[in-house]
Amino acid sequence: MEKESDLEKPAQLRAVIVGAGIAGLMAAHAFERAGIDYILLEKHEELTPQLGGGIALCPGTLRILSQLGMLERVLKLGMPICPQVQIYDEGEKRVDAPEMSLYKEWLGSEFWFIRRTDLLRELHAHLGHGQRVMLGKTVKRVQQSGCGVRVECDDGSVHGGDFVLGTDGTHSVVREAIWKQGREEEGTAVSRDESGKSIPIYFHFHLV
């Protein structure tokens, strides 16, 4: 557990990333390239739990992987998505059937199909500072102070930084902390009803 003195604003910019999924690990790679210190907190005891299945990587995501120097390795783990994908509204009415092969012409790359666990494993394996990924850290509270942010975990550990990046999924603790602060601050435009809004999306595959 970090001491209270560790919670003081560090000389180097420091991020606390919550959630070691695809977004969290890619953010860690970006921070390393930018020279930003970070710590990554993940609630699961293992980095690649058997959650989710295959995912489709969009051309924009492939460009980011290229910028991170990881594209060739990731492409070897998957395959191009089928030429045509049919999308249904809540599993009943077909709303679109795009020709996936056209995306390479339009955007410079195809959609790429890969197992989620394989991508997570690859992202973690090539971090320059993999020891900064801490497993079994369930965040229960996020607080903001004059010297940065304070992130508390249910095991009693406390982690400080200049800012927190919430990549902890649908039921995000970080998102709820932001809504809570917004509701409490005077003059806020955030209502209680707005904080619970979500947008249902129905696809037969997962785009990243």
Automatic annotation (TrEMBL):
GO terms for molecular function: FAD binding; monooxygenase activity. It comes from the Eukaryota. Keywords: FAD, Flavoprotein, Membrane, Monooxygenase, Oxidoreductase, Transmembrane, Transmembrane helix. Pfam families: FAD_binding_3. The chain crosses the membrane at residues 12-31. This is FAD-binding domain-containing protein. It comes from Ophiocordyceps australis. Residues 15-187 form the FAD-binding domain. Its cofactor is FAD. Belongs to the paxM FAD-dependent monooxygenase family.
